[in-house]
């Protein structure tokens, strides 16, 4: 049997290998081209909307406000030597520490507790509803709620109402003065009778210069006080004007309102207060238990000041707390829904087994529920960190002008420097790069977490 020449054998083998490899390479190339064709629109959009802005912002951060002169690292040096930037960084740190932890904890508590009640869906809907409100609208709502004036802000209105109730319902009538020959205004705004009186006497106080809105709704027709006893001094405090005019000055006429809630003191010689009374809805009072002697009947200045007006929530001291509270109001529902979804997918047999073994509810939560929910909790927590680092809307809307510097954050500072009057887009670009660097680690953690869950 003859053997073909070696050259022929080699050549034949090479032709067969080439003819088999060529279709495979061409198929792979064709697959790559098809994939690139499908990815091309997304890659173009990604480059135009993400890569190009980042690269250009980095490039712009090395130029002066006009964009003509290269200044190197000057914008970054200015950024870290500016007091407003330090305030923004400090506030961002406060946000990262407080807001995500609070939202995550509340979301966990709501998800676990509401899972045990009958109307859980309705309660979850109520808690989640603020997510449907835009951040701008939520900022307007909270700015209105926390207005300093009790007539405008519901929070201070409630606080003032409770304070007045605790203090015995003493009302305030700012600017009030007595009629001539019916009283005098002493030092520090105290209104007193012109002459000292003895027990068994009456002392009336017709007052004027009181705004109609300061007269309580419960104020009724002024009435003359009943005759006092031997150890009493009585009288009436009333508004000595009639709406629309009429009446006689210094006399209790029909249409004149008594002033309720006014404190009246009987001051003995030496300045000691011997007795105290509060006027009723008709403005009447009775000072009882007085020893024989002379007393000056006076109305303390606390009756005629503005009174307790609540807390300046929108001041520099509390403004960051109010903004964080508004953020928690919105985003606690998001944390609750995310954690509740993880709770619904959890194997409940482990919890039941723990209860059968004698574990109480706290031990079941700490040893079983929380560890099983930890992947979801971490995702929620990191997502909220990313969100608060970019917070802008609430910080821009809620603070009044005087409190804006105290509530400043990096995103607002970036906008202010670039477009809000600063017109320094070089420094604004440097702040944008700082914000990107701060947010990037949290984004990487979240992406890795998603990949690990997908691989599992």
TrEMBL record:
TM segment ranges: 32-55, 93-113, 125-146, 318-340, 372-392, 427-447
Protein name per its UniProtKB record: Carbohydrate ABC transporter membrane protein 1, CUT1 family
Compartments in which it is found: Cell membrane; Secreted
GO terms (BP aspect): transmembrane transport
Keyword hit for Repeat: no
Similarity annotation: Belongs to the binding-protein-dependent transport system permease family.
Gene source species: Paramicrobacterium humi
Annotated stretches, region: Disordered: 1-25
Keywords, alphabetical: Cell membrane, Membrane, Secreted, Signal, Transmembrane, Transmembrane helix, Transport
Domain ABC transmembrane type-1: 89-446
InterPro entries according to UniProt: MetI-like (IPR000515), MetI-like_sf (IPR035906), Sdr_B (IPR033764), UgpAE/MalFG_permease (IPR050809)
Membrane topology of the entry: Multi-pass membrane protein
GO CC list: extracellular region; plasma membrane
Classification via PROSITE patterns: ABC_TM1 (PS50928)
